[in-house]
Amino acid sequence: MKPILITMSAFGSYAGREEINFASFQGGVVLVSGKTGSGKSTIFNAMSYALYGGGEVGRSDYAAETTPTYVELEFEHGGRHYTVKRCPEYMRKAKRGSGMTKEAASAELTCSETGEVQTKAVEKRIEEIIGLNREQFYQTMMIRQGQFRDILVAD
Known about the structure:
By secondary structure, the chain is of the alpha+beta class. It has helices at about 40-50, 120-130, 135-140, 150, and strands at about 1-10, 15-20, 70-75, 80-85, 90-95, 100-105, 105-110, 115-120. It contains 4 helices and 8 strands.
């Protein structure tokens, strides 16, 4: 699975809309570094959330009431281009009148080559496509400080 573009909107520690264009990086390996609390883990949590849902993620406490909350990940796998967009359940400003209303959680997976659009059992379809469950994906995509040796000696 090769990530192309991730868009995070009002997600985790990011109050606005943030994009990371992985296609602009050369060499296939990306090192994400920065100070503690700068949002590094949020990037990987967003990828995992987009693909598999769940986890301890949600709407940014710093987001404006009108900013939608979602994560969208574009990736390539097996010669095909996929886009998965996932929104958590959250309270948003009502479109009519005043007050707040609940935005329902949603997920959608599309494949540009086949025209496939899936809105149910997205996690299961992702596992079929990339061949990794959530835990395997997280171990493969991110090596936390002090865990490099664990990866080297894993079965």
